């Protein structure tokens, strides 16, 4: 077992006083088809404290995105255990997984994944649509707040195609934080942006981490951005490496 | 949530105009055909003038006689003698009336041969049926008893004989008999077979009295009960009365069967080919109608399902995003079914408008004389229900298939820089 963090090598119950937001134990992911078996992750262990900002690095195909998808409950491990905010997720139903994703996790993607048919405001509101008790007015207010936070409150009625790449990623961040999740998962959030815009996005993420105490896990290729995080985890061929 | 869904639904429909056109065409065309069918059914079976009381009216429409060896059967409407002698004073009823089927008859007016459907009725017939009078009044029990040569005509017949002038008090000649017009009623659609005719005259004005001695003939008995709750007792009584029938020549005919049935049961009997000795099977007829509708809807539905699958799969990225942010599979099914129902409702609205034109066009042909296929609220509701049903039928499978998409695969299917 290879780990890069002293915290992980210790049994979790010895981490007295330190609240863990995410814990992965011996996670494996294998993609099987009729003919071939592709191992994407092998024996991954990870513990992320509440309010931590960590990055995951590694070459293409090393399993970074797969790991992020497993943490984000978009994918299930072939074996191993996933614990989010104290809850072991492995046996959750589709509905319960959806609820945890909705309430606890916000996603930021490299390619933004905004819905072009919806305005900025409507895009940002998406996570709130799946909260049963929320009124339209409350949704609008929260979306407005989130857009304020990313400095795009003047663009609420624009459509994604009318915005620059940096602005689109800001909208995506607003969407990710609108539901006030405790965890943000960012998959190469600066990968499609020039360095200046990338820095702006990083500043935003750092601000969220410091001011709101949001736990952030970021996959990146960019060592300059990774350096800004508290810890760097490295993956190679699906294994954690030092 | 709903508004968000509707916004995107409209955008998607506008984006793929050709797909939308094909879908709407299939939906509206299918609905037009179905609406015509439903309208036909409604104008045949639905309550409407003059059949406003059919919910509490039974009829004895067909009689079957069999010979001793049961090798021969005679099926026809009943004879006057059968009803007059064996069905008088039925208990638990309000009224009973006799009338003939409408027969084609001819008049000669100003050198022109005018064909008309002639029906002979008693006075009670006009109390069971609620005709809409334009002039004058109905044939009365007195007219029937005294064999008064009076007639009620419809407005089309008035037009043929008298232009659009008043007809009451004037005479018409039909099949060599002269009748004084006592009333003019609105045209009764041909599809309402029981009251339908152009000219109604008393039974007793038959040229001969032979009809009085016949067990089999061309008479229909209508029995109006205080309410449909009395039907079972009446039906039972009818069966009991049939057992009392004496046959003039039992060696020739010695068995008789008939049923008191609703108008729909009568049509069901014809539709399913049920013999008069067996009870009508309205359920079977309804299943047949329903099966025909389903079969007719199947092809466009399969087409729509295909279109919808490709339309939805194009939106894999959106599905991925929604799943990532907390939409469960069932929520997504709901969203896409809603979109499809919206599409079918638009198609339904177009279909309704087209149906109106189509029905007007059919009504103008003489295929169903005096048909008035109107898009009343009932037809509208049928149409709406069909559109929604159609939407659900063609939307559920694609939505379900799409909702099973793995979020990671769905996100991977997204177009760079945005989601289509």
Shape of chain B: elongated
Corresponding CATH architecture of chain A: 3-Layer(aba) Sandwich
CATH topology of chain A: Rossmann fold
What is the class of chain A in the CATH system?
Alpha Beta
Strand order of the largest sheet of chain A: 6-7-8-3-9-10
Distance between the termini of chain A: 11 Å
**Tally of discrete structural domains of chain A:** 1
Strand content of chain A: 25-35%
Overall SS class of chain A: alpha/beta
Roughly what is the average pLDDT of chain A, rounded to an integer? 87
Which H/E pattern describes the elements of chain B? HHEEHEEEHEHEHEEEEHEHHHHHH
Counted up, domains of chain B total 2
Low-confidence stretches of chain B: 414-420
**What is the overall number of helices of chain A?**
8
Query: Share of helix among residues of chain B?
Result: 40-55%
Roughly what percent helix of chain A? 25-40%
Give the helix tally of chain B. Answer: 13
Number of strands of chain A: 10
Radius of gyration of chain B: 29 Å
Oligomerization state of this entry?
A: heterodimer
């Amino acid at each position: 077992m290879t780990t890069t963090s002293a915290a992980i090598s210790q049994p979790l119950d010895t981490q007295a006083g330190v609240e863990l937001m995410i814990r992965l134990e011996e996670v494996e992911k294998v993609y099987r088809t009729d003919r071939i078996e592709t191992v994407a992750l092998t024996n991954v262990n990870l513990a992320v404290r509440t309010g931590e900002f960590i990055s995951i690095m590694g070459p293409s195909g090393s399993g970074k995105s797969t790991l992020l998808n497993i943490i984000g409950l978009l994918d299930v491990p072939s074996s191993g255990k996933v614990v989010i905010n104290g809850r072991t997720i492995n046996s959750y139903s589709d509905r319960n997984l959806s609820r945890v994703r909705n309430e606890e996790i916000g996603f930021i993607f490299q390619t933004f994944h905004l819905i072009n048919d919806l305005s900025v405001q409507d895009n940002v509101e998406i996570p709130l649509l799946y909260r049963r008790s929320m009124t339209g007015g409350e949704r609008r207010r929260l979306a407005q707040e989130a857009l304020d936070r990313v400095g795009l409150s003047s663009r609420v009625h624009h459509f994604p195609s009318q915005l620059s790449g940096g602005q689109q990623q800001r909208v995506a961040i607003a969407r990710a934080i609108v539901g006030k999740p405790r965890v943000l998962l960012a998959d190469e959030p600066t990968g499609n942006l020039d360095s200046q815009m990338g820095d702006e996005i990083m500043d935003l993420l750092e601000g969220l981490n410091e001011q709101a105490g949001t736990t952030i896990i970021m996959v990146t290729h960019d060592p300059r951005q990774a350096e800004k995080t508290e810890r760097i985890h490295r993956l190679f061929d699906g294994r954690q490496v030092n | 949530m709903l508004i968000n869904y509707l916004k995107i639904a409209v955008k998607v429909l506008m984006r793929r105009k050709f797909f939308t056109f094909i879908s709407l065409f299939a939906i509206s065309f299918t609905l037009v055909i179905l609406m015509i069918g439903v309208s036909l059914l409604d104008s045949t079976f639905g309550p409407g003038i003059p059949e406003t009381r059919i919910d509490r009216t039974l009829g004895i429409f067909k009689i079957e006689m069999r010979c001793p060896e049961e090798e021969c059967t005679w099926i026809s409407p009943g004879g006057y003698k059968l009803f007059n002698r064996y069905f008088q004073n039925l208990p638990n009823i309000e009224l009973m009336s006799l009338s003939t089927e409408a027969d084609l008859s001819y008049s000669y007016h100003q050198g022109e041969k005018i064909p008309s459907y002639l029906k002979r009725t008693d006075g009670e017939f006009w109390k069971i049926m609620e005709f809409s009078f334009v002039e004058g009044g109905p044939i009365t029990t007195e007219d029937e008893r005294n064999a008064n040569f009076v007639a009620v005509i419809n407005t089309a017949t008035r037009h043929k004989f008298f232009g659009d002038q008043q007809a009451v008090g004037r005479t018409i000649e039909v099949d060599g008999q002269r009748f004084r017009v006592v009333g003019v009623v609105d045209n009764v659609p041909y599809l309402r077979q029981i009251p339908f005719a152009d000219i109604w005259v008393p039974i007793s004005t038959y040229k001969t009295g032979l009809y009085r001695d016949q067990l089999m003939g061309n008479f229909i008995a209508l029995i109006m009960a205080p309410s449909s709750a009395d039907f079972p007792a009446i039906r039972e009584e009818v069966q009991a009365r049939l057992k009392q029938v004496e046959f003039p020549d039992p060696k020739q005919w010695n068995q008789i069967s008939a049923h008191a049935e609703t108008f729909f049961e009568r049509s069901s009997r014809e539709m399913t080919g049920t013999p008069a000795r067996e009870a009508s099977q309205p359920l079977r007829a309804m299943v047949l109608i329903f099966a025909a509708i389903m079969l007719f809807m199947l092809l466009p539905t399969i087409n729509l399902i295909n279109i919808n699958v490709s339309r939805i799969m194009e939106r894999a990225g959106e599905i991925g995003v929604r799943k990532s942010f907390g939409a469960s599979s069932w929520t997504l099914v709901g969203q896409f079914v809603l979109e499809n129902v919206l599409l079918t409702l638009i198609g339904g609205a177009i279909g309704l408008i087209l149906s109106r034109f189509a029905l007007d066009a059919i009504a103008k042909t003489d295929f169903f004389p005096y048909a008035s296929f109107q898009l009343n609220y009932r037809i509208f509701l049928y149409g709406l229900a069909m559109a929604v049903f159609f939407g659900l039928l063609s939307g559920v499978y694609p939505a379900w298939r799409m909702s099973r998409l793995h979020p990671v695969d769905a996100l991977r299917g997204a177009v760079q820089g945005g989601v289509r």
